[in-house]
Write a structure and sequence with these properties.
By secondary structure, this protein is an alpha+beta fold. The chain folds into 3 domains: 83 residues, Polyphosphate kinase N-terminal domain (Methane Monooxygenase Hydroxylase, Chain G, domain 1, Up-down Bundle), CATH 1.20.58.310; 179 residues, Polyphosphate kinase middle domain (polyphosphate kinase like), CATH 3.30.1840; 63 residues, no CATH class. Helices cover 39% and strands 16% of the residues. The protein is built from 12 helices and 11 strands. The strands form 3 sheets. Strands 4-6-5-9-10-11 form a 6-stranded mixed beta sheet. A 3-stranded mixed beta sheet has the order 3-8-7. The chain has a two-stranded antiparallel ribbon with strand order 1-2. A hairpin with a 5-residue loop joins β5 and β6. It is globular and about 85 Å long. The relative contact order is 0.11.
Length: 406
């Protein structure tokens, strides 16, 4: 800013000159890549908060955001944890050491998880207003309770394995992303307090749809699997009084490192994938209603460090909420989109190579069918001039993966 005199008037005139900020130098020029990824996942969550989207599509975005965060901890954050455990103190280009990155990751995720739970609470209220309800034991109707008891004894009870944890029965291994119920109980015979676990198999539906009697076509009622198990705990642990319970889940180090010169890549992948299931615990999520003494039991048995323990007020494993997206309420979903098949392939009677020789083809998924890629591969397999096929397959839908294997 400069000041100049104005001739003959005895006044001063102020003239402002804008000063261009100097570009940052050194580490300030960079933004941490892990925090950048978390910023991306926040934008996914913002889509769940966007009320211009149909209600169940917003729920889908919330589920995707939760699934993304699980993968982030299992792979990307796991790499940072590994550096911390190895004592690496060299800062990355943005100037943060692995320990500082870990602290920033957990700080950011704390706010992100809080916002996800707030979004979940808002979505459940909106869903209830349009007839999609998640009920608890207190709001079950009599006929629903009878139906649930039969369903529990015939479909759930046979595949649950309740475990009493004591010196004769050590704490079991908890699978990656495994949801487990911890139970504190008192033996009726001698008053001894004991702890128990109920690992919940991953193939079980997390949300059970209640189908009882004559109900309105607009009324859809779900109940959580943990709630159902809680209703019938007496069937799983006999001769005891249940004092408290709560759920927890673990995320394990699932990062895979392969040497390109490995003699058998298939065998190497099989070995690494088996190892993923038993990796170090990167994140332990505990239900907020679990009493502190039961929390301490879980943390001590899993031997998890304090910075890896997260107590959550709300629903664990929000990625499972995708099970609530029902097809019988199409007005709450995006309008279906009919994908197209590249016309130029049709013009050459399905000959992908001939169409490509004419002009390069860019296939834009999901707006264009993935079937053209499968057709291209099948033609390449049958072509005697093709010597090798190398393909990076990333996150295809299950039915697409099956069709490509055929």
């Amino acid at each position: 800013m400069t000041t100049t005199g104005t001739k003959g008037k005895g006044r001063e005139k102020t003239v402002s000159k804008s000063v261009q900020p100097m570009p940052p130098e050194g580490p300030a020029r960079f933004y941490n890549r892990e925090l950048s990824w978390l910023q991306f996942n926040r934008r996914v969550l913002e889509e769940a908060q966007n009320k211009s989207h149909p209600l169940l599509e917003r729920l889908r975005f919330l589920s995707i955001s939760a699934s993304n965060l699980d993968e982030f901890y299992m792979v990307r954050a796991a790499g940072v944890y590994g550096q911390v455990r190895a004592g690496v103190a060299i800062p990355s280009q943005d100037g943060l050491t692995p320990s500082q990155q870990l602290a920033e990751i957990n700080r950011f995720v704390g706010g992100l998880v809080y916002d996800k739970q707030a979004c979940w609470t808002a979505l459940t209220a909106e869903m209830a207003a349009v007839g999609i309800q998640i009920v608890d034991g207190d709001t079950l109707r009599k006929e629903e309770h009878v139906w649930l008891e039969t369903m529990f004894m015939t479909h759930i009870f046979p595949i649950l394995t309740p475990i009493a944890v004591d010196p004769a029965h050590p704490f079991p291994f908890i699978l990656n992303k495994g949801l487990t119920m911890a139970v504190e109980m008192q033996r009726q015979s001698d008053g001894k307090v004991m702890n128990g676990l109920i690992p919940i198999p991953g193939q079980m539906e997390r949300f059970i749809r209640l189908r009882v009697g004559e109900t309105s076509t607009q009324e859809i009622r779900f109940i959580q699997l943990e709630t159902v198990i809680g209703l019938f705990l007496g069937e799983l642990f006999s001769g005891v009084t249940i004092r408290s319970r709560g759920a927890f889940r673990v995320l394990r180090d699932s990062d895979i490192e392969l040497q390109e010169e490995a003699e058998d890549l298939v065998r190497s992948f099989e070995t690494q994938l088996k190892r993923r299931r038993r990796g170090n615990v990167i994140r332990l999520e505990i239900e907020g209603r679990m009493p502190e003494r039961l929390q301490k039991f879980v943390v001590d048995e899993l031997e998890v460090e304090e910075h890896s323990v997260f107590v959550k007020d709300g629903l664990l494993a929000l990625a499972d909420t995708t099970q609530l997206i029902v097809s019988d309420r199409p007005e709450l979903l995006f309008k279906p989109f009919n994908i197209r098949f590249p016309e130029r392939i049709r013009e050459f009677n399905g000959d992908c190579f001939a169409a490509i020789r004419k002009k390069d083809i860019l296939v834009h998924h999901p707006y264009e069918s993935f079937d053209v890629v499968v057709q291209y591969l099948r033609q390449a397999v049958a072509d005697p001039n093709v010597m090798a096929i190398k393909w990076t397959l990333y996150r295809t839908r299950p039915e697409t993966a099956r069709s490509s294997r055929r």
